[in-house]
Amino acid sequence: MRFGPFLSTLLHTFSNFTRIRAPSSPTRIAALRPLPLRSMSGIPFLGALFGSSSSNSTKMSYPDQRPDSEWRAVLNKEQFRVLREKGTEPPGSGKFDKHSPEEGVYTCAGCHAPLYKANHKFKSGCGWPAYFDSIPGAVTRHEDRTLGMTRIEIVCSNCGGHLGHVFKGEGYATPTDERHCVNSVSLNFSIDDKVVDIGSKESKV
Questions:
Q1: The MsrB domain covers which part of the protein (predicted)?
Q2: Is domain 68-190 classified as CATH 2.60.120.680?
Q3: Which of 14, 88, 130, 199 could form a disulfide with 124 if both were Cys (CB 3.0 to 4.6 A apart)?
Q4: Smallest Cα–Cα separation from 107: which of 143, 141, 85, 131?
């Protein structure tokens, strides 16, 4: 059993109980009672608490600098929650989790920048789409210190949209021994998209 994917699933689940503000009055205390996990993924508000991250990515400057008002106009609620508010979709729920094309390109669901080639994808069993590499320059890394530990968040280098996290050294038989754990909601896919390198190598911050 690989503990990396297992632990990441636990961490995403555990974060349901973080970032809840204190009630403004005693009558709101009941609203803070934890709900069963199986009911959380179906409630949009509680879903926003699912795996939220904080990093310095919001302080970075990206080519696509649209304000939230414009992002809300082009993204649905779940896309906005994940891409712009750093949420996480429940494990096993994404449309690209078991998607295994031989050709094509995965692009950012926000700005449509190419992110991953189809042949970067592999089966990890973690509950989210997994990629061992990205298109050069397409993904930027940031340190994420939420949940009492240090993880590496990955975002779209063009718009700063939250993609997920990258994990190293889990022992997968891939060329890089990395797993880019990406939300399906953050992605689109096209068999016809052409890959355009936007940098000599993946950006790191």
A1: 68-192
A2: no
A3: 130
A4: 131
Contacts of 137 (CB under 8 A, 6+ apart): 157, 197, 198, 199, 200, 201, 202, 203
Q: Of 108, 111, 159, 181, which is the active-site residue?
A: 181
Concerning whether 159 is annotated as a catalytic residue, the answer is no
Single pTM value for the model: 0.70
Q: Report the alpha-carbon distance of residue 56 to residue 129 in Å, rounded.
A: 24
Q: Which helix (H) or strand (E) holds 9?
A: helix 3-14
Strand partners, 189: 106
